[in-house]
Write a structure and sequence with these properties.
single chain; mainly alpha; de novo design (two linked rop proteins); 4 helices
């Protein structure tokens, strides 16, 4: 696996970005946009997937990164659960549900695979800005 130097290079992060864009698109639709509780919660969950991957990547160790990835994966599951609510309330169509749920599932699988990779190839310390020049 080639060295990843920025969180934007992580496939799971790219997929989580697609997930977030899909969620925002659906939650802007009439009806869904007025259910403030569900709208805000599903948006927060999708943003959490992206954010936890990024925050974990910037953390000091692979152990911390794996913990953040676990939270990201859990948030992807939360999005899927909330999509069922949106479908049941007829805020989204069956097609929108299947499409967005599939993105969330793909993201969760990518995160799980990345976690397994890090667990089997862990390094004691990982800092993404090793080449940075710090002067006082």
């Amino acid at each position: 696996m080639a060295a990843i130097t920025r969180f934007e290079e992580i496939e799971a992060w790219k997929t989580s970005r697609q997930l977030t864009n899909s969620v925002y698109s659906h939650t802007n639709q009439a009806g869904f946009n007025r259910d403030f509780g569900l709208r805000d919660q599903i948006r927060r969950a999708s943003v959490s997937v992206m954010s936890n991957i990024a925050e974990g990547f910037e953390s000091r160790t692979d152990v911390q990164f794996i913990n953040f990835l676990g939270m990201a994966r859990a948030s992807a599951g939360e999005v899927r659960a909330q999509l069922y609510i949106a479908l049941d309330q007829k805020y989204i169509t069956e097609e929108q549900f299947k499409e967005t749920s599939a993105i969330a599932q793909t993201c969760a699988r990518q995160i799980a695979s990345f976690m397994k990779y890090l667990e089997s190839n862990s390094r004691p310390r990982r800092i993404s800005d090793d080449s940075a020049d710090y002067e006082a």
